[in-house]
Amino acid sequence: MWRFFLAAASALALTALTLYTAQKSYLAIVNLLKYEERSEKAAKHSDTAARELYKSKATQASSAAAIALSLVSSLALSSAVLLGSPSASTSAYVLPPVNIVAIAAAFIHNQNFWKAKAKVPFVGGFNEAIQKSKEIRQLMVPMALGWGLVGLLCWIDG
Question: pTM of the predicted model, to two decimals?
């Protein structure tokens, strides 16, 4: 049973990491929104610009969705365990693999789009968005590993 509580403590640590990652994601989205009007104007005249605009929004959305899922899941799991909820056992087995898959999918989706983007001179906000997206990808790795640890602790305890 002690591993179950250790899993809850790990889930709380994941909450902190996820909140930090969410802050980075928010900043990346804000930086991209600064250029949305210009991007939409360009998209009206160029299919390539339209595709790029759509893909940039989609990658930010997939990252934000994975981060939100991790946040809600870590809070739900730690609360269920600490409050002795009957759903704690089920949550402990279901939430880790679901989050690992969601984070991995968002990571791959994000990397496939942003890894080839070069920084653009005199466009600081866009360059900062590229950097924040890279930081988000880097933070997704320990998030997924954290969920793996939580799942392992729950499985050993089960």
Answer: 0.84
